[in-house]
Design a protein that fits this description.
Elements: E1 14-19, E2 25-31, H1 34-39, H2 49-57, E3 60-65, H3 69-83, E4 98-102, E5 112-114, E6 123-128, H4 131-144, H5 152-157, H6 163-166, H7 180-194, H8 198-214, H9 218-235, E7 239-240, E8 248-255, E9 259-268, E10 271-281, H10 288-299, E11 308-310, H11 318-322, H12 324-338, H13 347-357, H14 364-376, E12 381-383, H15 388-412, H16 416-424, E13 432-441, E14 444-454, E15 457-458, E16 464-467, H17 474-488, E17 495-499, H18 502-514, E18 522-527, E19 546-548, H19 563-597, H20 604-614, H21 617-621, H22 625-629, H23 636-647
Helix pairs in contact: 3-14, 4-9, 8-9, 12-13, 16-19, 17-18, 19-20
Amino acid sequence: MQKPDSATIPQAPGVYLYKDDRGRVIYVGKARILRRRVLSYFRPEGLPAKTRAMLAHAASLEYLTTTSEKEALLLEASLIKKYRPHYNIVLRDDKQYVLFRLNLKHPFPRLETVRRARRDGARYFGPFTSALAARETWKILHRAFALRRCSDRAMKNRVRPCLYHFMGQCPAPCMGLITPQAYHEAVHKVCELLQGRAVPLLRELRAEMDQAAEELEFEKAAILRDQIRAVECTVERQAAVLPGGGDMDAIGLFPAGKGLALGIVFVRNGAVTDGRAFYWPGLSFEDAPELLWSFVSQYYSQATPPPRVLLPWLPPDLDSGLDDNADSEAQEPAQAARHGQDLPAAPDRVEEAAQAANGALLSGRELLEQTLADRRGGPVRIVPPQHAADNRLIDIAQSNAREEARRCQNQDELSILERLAAALRLPAAPRRIECVDVSHTGGRQTRVGLVVFEDDRPSRSQYRAFAMPDSGDDYATLHGWIARRLESGPPWPDLLLIDGGRAQLAVIQRALAEAGQEGLFSLAAIAKARDEHGQADRRAGNVADRIFVPGRANPLPLREGGPELLFLQNVRDATHRFAIGRHRRARSGAALSGELMRLPGIGPATARMLWEKFESVEAMRAATLADLRSLPGIGKARAAILLEKLKNLS
């Protein structure tokens, strides 16, 4: 890409977007001063290899200005998530983790699982990266400490206690069978446990159990014994690392041979509660500074940050790495401002220099800390290790990163089909994959598109479109399509993928069973992820589709953005495009046939014959007399009449 004219670049904070020759965004960056930052990419030497590769593919540059650098930082994270540029370090697994929520202002709080913390005065505990582990903990807590499970609306409308009350797992506050004070005693114990204060809680529970036993209240003592066991079971999953307590996230890096891995552990009240690891192939240790800053910015744009984020070291600001010349240019006006000299620079440079002299400009770290503090509603510090306990946490995070790198590199040695077989629990690698999708408009011109992949490559010569009876019932259409597919015979697929959810999968299973062909081939269904309102999430950049297989109620736990899920999404998208294309073609054909039959002397049979021969209005209008005479049953005289009518066809 050629160096842009400096006069065309704004001298304001904002975001810049490099695009390739097809208009796709390949890199997004933010800058305190756009002109200085962009021009620093075109200095003669000293650019990292990844930056040189990006410039070689860039064809154009666009800018979005903001009123402050903090707004630019937030906009950058939003655009990276939206476009997922090739040359940015993108956090693929950016899902919301599970949190526990307790609204202590309610007279009878309910322990809820949520994905997002809000500033509503409630207490939040977590995060839990595994929804299954969070659910198990939630069940243990409810069995040990009787709390209500129903929603506020259901609680208000109850006329008798629920089943959990008779199981001893709900005190029935809906019926007034417990006072708020007594209910909050159980809530207090749950809070103590979730805050990591298990030792004093266990001591208190054992004392209450001993006292109940001495007073011969054996039923109460048994309940307390079960609570002690539940607390111990929960505590076993946590490792104490900070005797004094405290909340923080610790991040560790591990440079593998073919990429860079990052691990993060969550410490709440001095105990490690959970952790995650990520791997980026193709990155080297040279990319570590950008990875650390980019990860913190993207990750905490979705998750609530703790008061302390621990990095293995404090990398330099990215601006300082690419903008050395610009920074040195800024020093002279700043020094002049300190000594009261005249400033020959432009007004915006004068203002910047004055701010620098007064210490008003924030470093990248300080800016990021302010942004995270706004999200948390309290101070957030990004710090390197301060003592031995911090180093121990970094070691734990680095160990997780090392294991993730080893796992990913081992997986890379397997083919995508072998990995897919392992993910879907298939008996062997699916060499032939067929995928189906139903397309129609209001139940008319219904088509079932069938796409074939052989050895992980599309086999377009085997694509087929099945014309089905008009119906708005996709389930009935799929049921009828199975009979058509069985009639067509082998080769049978190793895996049939259905564009749909559990219901579509169940219909295919039932149709095969009714035909006596159950188990003829493996089945799976792919459905869009659900958003916070329970609707199909069709937002751009969504990578969280769900995969269902027979005999399992919940979707498979495939990693979002993982190669197995991305491959299945590619197969589904190809099928979706093919089915829609054939449906549109059928719809156009129906409309064209209707237009043709409006012409005198053309009936349904002739209209269909013309459509099958020419397939479009343009082709019919361009037809010659010889073309029309080649149609069966069309003589010279009738061909001349048809030619005249078709020339006038609009």
